Structure of Aldehyde ferredoxin oxidoreductase:
Amino acid sequence: MEYTILRVDLSKDKIWEEKVGEKVIKKYLGGRGLGVKILYEETEAGIDPFGEENRLIFMTGYATGTAVPLSGRFHVITKSPLTGGIGDSNCGGQFGPMLRFAGYEGIVVQGIADNPVYLYIEDGHAELRDASHLWGKGTWSTEDTLREELGKDINIVSIGPAGENKVMMAAIINDKHRAAGRTGVGAVMGSKKLKAIVVRKGKRKPEVHDEAKLKEAVENVRRIVRESPVTGEALPTYGTAVLVNIINETGGFPTRNFKTGVFEKANEISGEKIAETYLVRKKACWGCIVACGRVTKVETPPYQVDGEGPEYETAWSLGAMCGISDLAAVIKAHNLCDDLGMDPISFGSTVACAMELYENGKIPEEKLGGLKLEWGNPQTVVELAWRTAFRDGFGDEIAMGAKRLAEKYGMPDLAMHVKGLELPAYDPRAYKGHGLGYATSNRGGCHLRAYMIAPEVLGIPEKLDPLTPEGKAQWVKIFQDLFCIVDSMVVCKFITFAVGAEELLSVTNPITGWDWNVDEFMKAGERIYNLERLYINREGFDGKDDTLPKRLLEEPMPEGAAKGHVVELDKMLEEFYRIRGWVNGKPTEEKLRELDIP
Ligand code: SF4
């Protein structure tokens, strides 16, 4: 097995190819794993995320674009400008498979272009082209313009004004609505003056060692995915927003900047409500049999839009987190984030932080340029999306992210973040293991490093009591290692609602020609998680950063199913470090030797 990686130095206007051999692939798999290896080895500690030396890495894995269901994704890895630690984000759409079909498993971009450019790739050939005419455009108009110029048979990832203006939460967008959203990867792309990457559909077939065995394994996985109540029914019927009512009822739907875990109008922004009102049809990423995407349309003023969403996370971040229940406004703000190229989780969370700062009298009226920063005001969120992407007025302050904003106004505890990354849509006072997952996540406040909601709420693979911290550390480690595999092979995480390591291995061996057992497979995931940890340790993060916002540790949940609960983090953390072989948030020499890293 061999990967072909496209290397691009924008400062030197130079493009070349590099091969990655079997030995490295066996250690780091691809995607997220190979990306962090390259970032760790090729960059020094303390580099400027916006400097020439930072790498912006687009990576697929051995499963991308094969017959494996839900394999239409790719991963982006870089040093995050938002957190100063590892920046990485996974994205659906079509781009991952298209990149492989065009000749490459990954792209590593370094340097900074003199003027805006886009990278054009066709049949194993790549070139840089002028993008001056695209600079300033939203991602939707960028895609439309490129399709007019180059024809329909192409796929595009691009940044919008948020990326160009180095907004700390800027995203990279594929197919207008799929986002590598988190950790500010779009701001790094903007700092490099790389507006877009265009891939023309090619004919190269991803390498598969044993087609017949893969076919058999794929049939089994497809059957399990179809039969699962989550991937076979809930997600196709209601999209990810099916979670709104479930999470609200279990008392962990963060409302008004995590003041409570119960939103009184949750149903108004739920998947069920979307299906009744604005849903046009469902939509799938490449090769996906689940189709959790929602195509939606709002026809009535003032929030008309023909677009997609919301997802569970955006229904929350642009809705409950800011006290908003106007579904049309949430859909509008969601689509603005796609078009402007911005992570709606970090954006909505930073707006909510600003609303609470305002409530506490910290933000003077004259700063707001006429905006009403009170809870539940939908116009404010929609207007702030524009102002943030263009760093206009108070939008320039939202563009910093919640941590910097709350520090600036003297109330740092009001920023609901871990390691500088804003938390997503689950209040861990209601799901203790999920809280440990947040605290120990390498990229910061994130639900996708260890999705403990699966066992703590959905009972997958078995039901755990969400309100006890007992026995959660081992589960968090398993999820963290498994998700490293999923992000590195690369498939959609939603596949894990239906299958586990065994089934993922059943497709891995026929593709790669390896003869791995589950332990060897999980060891690769553990290696990747530890290398990420080494990367953030080198950037100054350690045990002091494996924590949660004070509110979640000290303020008991005021109502709902988790009433009276806080997160008992210390006990879980101690057990977690012991299981991981870490001391003070750092892998020991012994652990690193065992995993054969770096
Ligand atoms: S389950 Fe949803 S996000 Fe995952 S690949 Fe399918 S459509 Fe995309």
In short: The domain at 235-421 is CATH 1.10.569.10 (Aldehyde Ferredoxin Oxidoreductase Protein, subunit A; domain 2).
